[in-house]
Structures are given as C-alpha cells and as structure tokens.
Specification:
Rossmann fold, 2 domains, alpha/beta
Length: 228
C-alpha cells in the first residue's frame, strides 16, 4: 500500500445523509389518500435509488446544471407516479434539496482525525450546486481544503477527469490519494485515474456511516515498512 497523503470524499451517502426517503414516500402517500405499507415504500425507494446509480442515469448530465438536476431526477422518481400521483415531484423537493441533508454522526470525528494527521482533504461530488455553504452550516468547512464539484468543473463522475482535477487542486499525486465513496460506478472510476479507492458498504438510516475505517486505512498506509 502506498502512503496516503490526501483523502477525497464523495458528499451524498458518504459524508451527508438525506431525509429518510421511505418515510417521505409514506407521508406523501398518506396526504394523497394512498395506502402504502412500510415495506412497499422501502422497496419503491430502493428501486429508484439503485436506478439513479446506473451509467444510463449518470450519462444524462443531471449534475451539470440546476435545471438538469431537477428535470432528470424528477423524471426518474416519476416512474412511481402511477402508484402515488405526484410522488416524483415530492421526492425531489423533500429529499434531493441539499439543504435537507445532514452529516452522519461519524463525519466530523473522521474529518478531524484526518486533519490532525496532516492530510489534505477534498470533496468530489456530482452535484448541480455549490456545496461549500452546507459544509459551513454544518461546522465542517475548516476541514476541507478543496472542492471538485461537477457543475463547476463541467464534468461528472465516472469521468476520471474530475478526480484528476481534485488531486491537482489538493496538490497531491493521485497515487497518494484515497477516494472514499459509496457508488461503485461513479466513485469506483477513481481507480481509473490512479487513485486508491475505498467504497463504503450499506448502512442503517440514522446510524454511523463506518467512516472510522478510513482513518484505519490511512494509518496502515503510513505504518513503518510501507512504501514512502
């Protein structure tokens, strides 16, 4: 393992968590007079979110402008409108607005631990808005050294170019940089740019994200006997 001097994080589902979408679905269905079991709402959301991570959806350019973000995501969510009329628009407005997302309980401790070790930390996110205000509002801005956000750069994951640009902004070679994310398609492309890669596993809503493992990986890369 090559020594890690920088860590890049995805934003959504990696450092920040959305409102609980199945609860949003059930609440909206109830407002519309539609009976929906908890299991059905969960399955509905899982199907939509998994579809949103496919190469087909990534290729629609949803993260290059605010207009495209709203249009593409609403079209995807609206696949369930026949079951719950209007759910596509409701999901976008109640779940996808970045201001509604909150850090996981282990986000701040992990960023603090990495910064204490002298690492550079960056954000690589497919998003149509500037995420800096949300890090400031969450009290996390002090830990972030650079941002590479798709709308600003003009290219989105899984293009390797966004990872290359993020490393350039941090001033750390790709081989010494660890990318941490949750999406095997978009975040997994970091390996094509020469970065080290760690993909987070599933989690339970409202729990920690398992980010302590990132600190362990960094420490292992810096242990005596590792390539410097």
């Amino acid at each position: 393992m090559t020594r890690i001097d920088a860590v890049l994080f995805d934003w959504g589902d990696t450092l920040f968590e959305s409102p609980h979408a199945p609860t949003v679905i059930r609440t909206y269905a109830r407002e519309r007079g539609v009976a929906l079991e908890d299991r059905d709402a969960q399955e509905m959301w899982d199907e939509l979110w998994d579809a949103g991570k496919t190469r087909e959806e990534h290729a629609k350019g949803r993260d290059l402008s605010a207009e495209a973000h709203r249009r593409v995501w609403t079209e995807l969510f609206s696949r369930k409108d026949p079951l719950v009329p209007g759910i596509g628009r409701a999901l976008y407005e109640r779940v996808m607005a970045p201001g509604k997302w909150q850090p996981y309980p282990d986000t701040e401790p992990t960023l603090r631990a990495l910064k204490a070790r002298g690492l550079q930390i960056g954000i690589v996110s497919n998003h149509a808005w500037d995420l800096r205000p949300h890090f400031r509002d969450a009290g996390l801005a002090e830990f972030i050294d650079a941002y590479a956000i798709s709308y600003d750069i003009g290219v989105a994951k899984p293009s390797p170019l966004i990872f290359t640009e993020a490393c350039r902004r941090l001033g750390v070679p790709a081989a010494r940089t660890l990318m941490v994310g949750d999406d095997a398609v978009s975040d997994g492309a970091a390996a094509d740019a020469g970065l080290q890669l760690y993909l987070l596993g599933p989690y339970r809503h409202g729990s920690t994200r398992g980010l302590a493992r990132v600190v362990e990986i960094v420490d292992a890369s810096r242990a005596p006997g590792q390539p410097s």
